[in-house]
């Protein structure tokens, strides 16, 4: 399973219901292919989490473009086959260990599963919000989380 397959399956299960059928289909399709260029360019830290020999979780992180001195987790997704397996928690721990220092991320406000996961991993809400348009002209609210890694 590739990074794109993990991203598309997870996004489709968790986020596609928030969009029209056309936007959801386009979102899933773009997530299947957008990683080829990103991985070839070596853009940031990409890590995989495995259950046995099957990759079921992915993270993508790098320097924050908006918060100097912070790393940012840009993407963190687990294939639905990995939900509840512990692979997400293990990958988050490994990702944070690699990043160290101060880390932040954004997630959609109306996705309670992801928000619970980030809290369980020790992130706290900063109180910052923003909106993101996924291409349908209907911006969705996001909330920011942060965590400091002792080191």
Furnish the topology, listing elements before pairings:
Elements: H1 3-14, H2 21-41, E1 45-51, E2 54-63, E3 70-78, H3 87-99, E4 101-108, H4 112-120, E5 124-132, E6 140-149
Parallel strand pairs: 3-4
Antiparallel strand pairs: 1-2, 2-3, 4-6, 5-6
Describe the structure.
- With 151 residues, the chain is an alpha+beta fold.
- Helix content is 36%, strand content 35%.
- It has helices at 3-14, 21-41, 87-99, 112-120, and strands at residues 45-51, 54-63, 70-78, 101-108, 124-132, 140-149.
- Helix 1 runs antiparallel to helix 2.
- The longest helix has 21 residues, at 21-41.
- The radius of gyration is 15 Å and the shape is globular.
- The termini are far apart.
- The mean pLDDT is 94.
Short description:
The protein has 151 residues and is α+β, with helices and mostly antiparallel strands. It has helices spanning 3-14, 21-41, 87-99, 112-120; strands at residues 45-51, 54-63, 70-78, 101-108, 124-132, 140-149.
Residues in β-strands, percent: 35-45%
What percentage of residues falls in helices of 4 or more residues? 25-40%
**N-to-C terminal Cα separation, in Å?**
33 Å
What's the Cα radius of gyration?
15 Å
What is the residue-mean pLDDT, rounded to a whole number?
A: 94
Main β sheet profile: 6 strands, mixed
Number of helices: 4
Low-confidence stretches: none
* Count of individual beta strands: 6
Order of helices and strands: HHEEEHEHEE
């Amino acid at each position: 399973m590739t990074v794109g397959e993990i991203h598309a399956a997870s996004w489709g299960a968790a986020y596609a219901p928030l969009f029209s059928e056309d936007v959801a289909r386009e979102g899933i399709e773009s997530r299947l292919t957008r990683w080829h260029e990103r991985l070839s360019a070596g853009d940031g830290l990409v890590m995989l989490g495995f259950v046995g020999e099957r990759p079921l979780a992915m993270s993508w992180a790098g320097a924050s473009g908006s918060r100097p001195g912070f790393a940012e987790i840009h993407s963190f997704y687990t294939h639905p086959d990995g939900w509840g397996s512990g692979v997400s928690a293990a990958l988050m721990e490994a990702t944070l260990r690699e990043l160290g220092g101060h880390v932040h991320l954004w997630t959609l406000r109306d996705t309670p599963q992801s928000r619970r996961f980030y809290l369980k991993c020790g992130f706290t809400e900063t109180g910052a919000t923003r909106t993101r348009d996924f291409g349908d002209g209907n911006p969705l609210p996001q909330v920011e989380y942060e965590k400091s890694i002792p080191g």
